Each structure stands twice: as C-alpha cells, then as structure tokens.
Amino acid sequence: MRSGFRELTIIDLEYINFKKVDNLMRIKKIYIFLIICGFIFNCNKSNKYSGGWPVNSNSDNIQDPGYNLPCPGATGCECTSNEDCDNQNCSAHPKGNFCVPKKGDIIPRFNAIDQFGEKVDLYDFANQGKMILIELSAAWCSPCKDVASWLTTDDLKIRENPWWNDRYIPIRDMIKNGEILLVNYLFEGTERKTTATPDDVVAWYSKYPDSRIPVLADENRFIHSWVKPTGLPCIFLVDENMRLINYTNRGLTDAFLYLTQLKK
C-alpha cells in the first residue's frame, strides 16, 4: 500500500507541474494576443480615415460650444443688440439681424460625410500645429469651381475674378506642402437651394481630385446656419485649437491676406 501511495503521489505532482506549465503558456499567449490587439487598435486609430485625414486623440478636450441650439442667444439666432447674443455679437444680415461668430469663438464640432463616404469629425484637424481654412461652397458656384480648379491643377482662370490678388498664389503651396489645412463644406448641390448630398461631394471630388482636401456634405446645413454666408466662396481661418482667427460670411480676402502677410 505504501508503494502504491508513493507512486500515486508522484503521478499527482507531475500532473500539477504539467498544469502549471500549461497555464503559463496560456498566459503568455493571452499576453501576446493583447499586445497584438493593442498594436492593431493603434494602427487603426492612426489610419481612421480612408482619405488620410489627421486624427486628434485629444478632440474630446476641446470645449464644443454646440450648434443648432435653441433661441434666443445662440449663434444663428435673431437679435436686436449684442446683449441678445451669448457671444455678444449681433450683426446686420440681408435677411435681418443675427448672432454671428466672431474672432476668438470656438467653431462647433461639425461632423459630415466626406468624398469616401465616411463621417469626418472636424475636431480631428485640431492640435496638429497648423491653421485650418474652412470653406463653404456649392456645386453650382462658379467662383468656388475656380478656387477648386486652382488648388487642384494650378488653373489661373481664378485671376478673372475681381476679388483675386496674385499675392494669394503661395497659399496653394502652403496647402500642398501641409503647412496649413483646408476643409471644404459643400452645402448646396448643382442647383441653387438644393442641399448637398454625399453624391454631390463624390462628384465634386471626381472633378477636382485633391488628396489633401476633404470635401464634406453639409446635409443638414448646420455649418451653413452657423456661418450664414452671403457670398461664395466663403473662407475663414481657425487656429489649431479651433478658435476663429477671423470670420467672414462672404469671400476669402481676410483669411488669404492673413496667411500671405505671415509669409512676408
């Protein structure tokens, strides 16, 4: 009996040792699996967009003021004086007086579908150490087409527009070289007063293919309502923290003059 007991004890110990080794191997496999998953997750995060647009891991830290907010007081609401506006900026408009953005305001976190069918977060362009040009355009707009053709192919037909100045020419290289960013929001399609769709931005990109510029469909006219453009193209500038460096509801003069003055 004693001999049998010893043999049984030895067998049990060997089994326990085998289980320890087996468990250690399993733990190692799980550890390696977690490392691989973390690597893949980070890769996917850094390549979030098919268009290669930047990704901002700290986007949630920006204090989004919101948009399409209830009146009175919010940007886009009617007003009679600055006191009626949360940002103290009531301004005359062809359709009345409205609370409009002003220098120093943070642009809201607008999300929209790009030319690749993906939802793009405007705040992903923040914290890249670069200023961002925000453009509002329409597929029917001839001057908007001139800007797109100039940026895409260096077509100098843009010179025929009365608002053009050759001092703006370096801006194309600034965008091309990644010194600054540009985000284009298309709010109307090929017909006036027809809201732009994802198909419109695909068609726009097909005609003006520029791998550096996201073209986004303002399907609900949220950014249109916030800016209230009175002329196109409408281009203004924000800093890397999404604060307005300048604001306009028509043209591109203020933004382009600011950028070219910096280059001097």
What do these coordinates show?
The chain has 264 residues and is α/β, with parallel strands linked by helices. The chain folds into 3 domains: 1-46; 65-103; 106-263, Glutaredoxin (3-Layer(aba) Sandwich), CATH 3.40.30. The chain is built from 6 helices and 9 strands, in the order H-E-E-E-E-E-H-H-E-H-E-H-E-E-H. Strands 7-6-5-8-9 form a 5-stranded mixed β-sheet, with helices on one face. Strands 1-2 form a two-stranded antiparallel sheet. Strand 1 (90-93) and strand 2 form a beta hairpin. It starts with a helix and ends with a helix. The relative contact order is 0.14.
Strand and helix map with partners:
Elements lengths: L1 H45 L43 E4 L2 E4 L11 E3 L5 E3 L10 E7 L3 H12 L16 H7 L4 E8 L9 H10 L7 E3 L4 H6 L6 E5 L5 E3 L6 H11 L1
Parallel strand pairs: 5-6, 6-7
Antiparallel strand pairs: 1-2, 3-4, 5-8, 8-9
Q: Tally the structural domains.
A: 3
Please count the helical segments: 6
Sheet with most strands: 5 strands, mixed
Give the class from helix and strand content and strand pairing: alpha/beta
Considering the protein shown, what is the CATH homologous superfamily of the largest domain?
Answer: Glutaredoxin
State the separation between the terminal residues, measured CA to CA: 99 Å
Biggest sheet, spatial arrangement of strands: 7-6-5-8-9
- Subunit organisation of the chains: single chain
Which overall shape is indicated by the principal axes computed on the Cα atoms? globular
The CATH architecture category of the largest domain equals 3-Layer(aba) Sandwich
H-E string: HEEEEEHHEHEHEEH
CATH uppermost class of the largest domain: Alpha Beta
Spans where pLDDT lies below 50 across 5 or more residues: 1-11, 37-45
The averaged pLDDT comes out at 89
Strand content: 15-25%
Gyration radius, in Å: 28 Å
Number of strands: 9
CATH topology title of the largest domain? Glutaredoxin
Helix content: 25-40%
